[in-house]
User: Fold these one by one.
Assistant:
Number 1:
Amino acid sequence: MSAQDTARIVSWHGNPSIPTFTPPPGAVDAHCHVFGPMAQFPFSPKAKYLPEDAGPDMLFALRDRLGFARNVIVQASCHGTDNSATLDAIVRSDGKARGVAVVDPAITDAELEKLHEGGMRGVRFNFLKRLVDDAPKDKFLEIAKRIQPLGWHVVVYFEADILEEMRPFLDAIPTLIVIDHMGRPDVSQGPDGADMRAFRRLLDSRDDIWTKVTCPDRLDPNGAPWDDFARSVAPLVADYPDRVLWGTDWPHPNMEKAIPDDGALVDMIPRIAPTIELQRKLLIDNPMRLYWPGE
Ligand SMILES: O=C(O)/C=C(\CC(=O)C(=O)O)C(=O)O
């Protein structure tokens, strides 16, 4: 049975709390998605989940409610390699959103250029078997080389159990790399656990590997208030302050059984970035360098 035969899913909170923490003016939500609207932007026939519509109006209302100024919209796997929904959201943002695309390896240079004009600044390689049918490393490396003239970076999503086998691939990527959700460590192991130590070795292997310190809801097996996430991730932010990004992950694909409160997610920020300076780097300086350089 494909996702298209199943009922459409709601994986986001209907009434998120207003956070206690006030993000600094200009803060960027650097990891979120849009779903559809399906009537205009149908989901991929290969989609592994079929969500209800969560389009740009909803995303921008949440941005304002949480106190953010800008979004980086990452093409979600349910839209495959058709980036139209993400591009449409960027157009509607009045310059307040940029994007990360997912592309077919056969994409032409002219099409890549068009994506750049549409506000894309990176390409995502997804290695989660539950989300994509295949992840051809050789073809991904070709794309990574071809996006270099555009000044783009590569976003890579994988889980901790394949970190070591990912190393030769990651070593060969010629652009800056952003690892989604820290490569999904088991944060209940703590800051000195095997997963965090392996991830730090990766960060130490190159100074142009960045990461998103995101998704306590996905990574903390003990759930809210995500204490294991806070104690494991705060030292990472302290040690790599210029290489970290933060995002809500709204509309939280596949989290329908444990939907996080977006306000509570924002309230995690001072627990992982306790000083004004760390918060400014995490929420403004770092994402601006990648997505709005020169502004
Ligand atoms: O939103 C995320 O980053 C994580 C996802 C969904 C995803 O990556 C996608 O659909 O492309 C997940 O773990 O299911």
Number 2:
Amino acid sequence: MSLALCALSHTPVMGVHQPADEVVARVEAALDDARAFVADVDPDLVVVFAPDHYNGFLYDLMPSFCIGAQATAIGDYGTSAGPLPVDRAAARSLASAVLDAGVDVAFSERMTVDHGCAQPLDLLFGGIDTVPVVPVFINCVAEPLGPVSRVRLLGEAVGRAAAALDRRVLLLGSGGLSHDPPVPRLTEAPPEVVERLISGRNPTPEERAARQDRVFDAALAYAAGTSDLMPLNPEWDRRFLEVLGGGDLAQLDSWSNESFVQEAGHSSHEVRTWIAVHAALGAMGPYEVRSTFYEAIPEWIAGFGVTTAETRGR
Ligand SMILES: O=C(O)CCC(=O)/C=C/C=C(\O)C(=O)O
Ligand SMILES: [Fe+2]
């Protein structure tokens, strides 16, 4: 049995509008480090904690958390599409254990995932179908959100259950850090957008392209300094990474949801996936960060981080 962790930001803009070559080279080097770490871990199961951006989880029924026993990726923003090789027995076992631990996780036999789940699998494994996975959805976008303490408890419960599987498990987190890309919000959107947030599954290719172009245009304006989207907050990002590295995750329980938005933007809630993977790893004892990378990348509207960690003394 072993647990290891990799957490990384995702961005729809990667490969579309690139930052300066030296920035891309630094990101690639960090991803190379992470790939080497993952190759060394040689996981036979990846538990991937990911948000969704109104593709698989909409306001017709929005759970806080959901474990998928079967899942399909839609292939947005150039990420891989198709069925994920979900380990159904492991998914059921994790869901049962998490429920037994008192965390009311939803369970899906038809989960739809988007770039939030597919991009880190593409980046680390070269595709979404190379290693058995269990996808764990964490709502990071659709307010109202529960407190981050619940995410920590979810992570701890998954970590204990994953350790009991007697497998080499990689805990993979995808999202954030500080960023506030143009993701619609129910309380502020015009009626036609509200309707798609509630029941807009399976948009036409044209509708999908329009949504994606909106994000690409926003990234160009952001990089050009002509956007009114909120600035990235590297200071906040580094403070957050420091807390995760220190292992005392309960400190984060006092960070209110409002403070995330005010200091680091609405989509900084995606760091819930980082909290979950660190809590999962920490559930089995103290851990050590093996590598960490951070850079604020306006071209991608992203405080971009990559962290690897494993149980101390492994
Ligand atoms: O238009 C929509 O409904 C969603 C737009 C979208 O998918 C944006 C995604 C941005 C990220 O995933 C990110 O920067 O983390
Ligand atoms: Fe995202």
Number 3:
Amino acid sequence: MTEIHIRPARTSDVHGIKELVAPMAAERILITKDTVTYYENIQEFVVAQDAEGTLVGCGALHVMWEDLAEVRTLATSPAARGHGVGGRMLEELLARASRLGVSRVFCLTFEVPFFAAHGFEVMANQETIPPEVFTELLRSHDEGVAEYLDLARVKPNTLGNTRMIRSVTPEG
Ligand SMILES: CC(=O)SCCNC(=O)CCNC(=O)[C@H](O)C(C)(C)COP(=O)(O)OP(=O)(O)OC[C@H]1O[C@@H](n2cnc3c(N)ncnc32)[C@H](O)[C@@H]1OP(=O)(O)O
């Protein structure tokens, strides 16, 4: 495998991210988004690029609340898996979380051993959210927030997935 470079995503990566995600979305492992949503959220993404400039991985960190963010759309192309690319992208997203001042990072995944190897633990189902924060989060139109809150309307997205969380030390 050629050397892989992990870097913040640019607008020109949207096409590659969509191509990478499409087969996994078809398998219902990941959720695809409208192109406009990828552009709007491009600053949340990191990508992994090989020496030829081909995009072989992507991942995003979405801030939900003062102390809480979610890892989303973490994917390595099938040919590049098992070489540490996913792990490096995840560690970069966790470093971002720390720099942003977040102290907990959530994910919803089928890849439980992978996330566990990076410090995530399976969430107790009724992890306490202060009622005032719960009420504020309910105002969000974001599907991921609804998934975090375990709302009935997103159950089809979350079926079979495991809710996991880990602490990070906020910078500063
Ligand atoms: C919150 C969300 O985004 S959930 C969605 C998660 N993504 C998906 O389900 C999409 C489909 N899956 C994937 O794209 C990938 O399998 C990912 C993103 C989960 C992992 O990506 P990879 O690039 O394969 O990760 P990485 O190589 O760091 O680790 C995979 C395994 O290879 C092992 N590994 C890491 N480096 C090496 C290496 N140099 N040599 C051999 N094995 C290695 C790791 O120990 C790891 O094992 P584990 O899963 O038992 O912990």
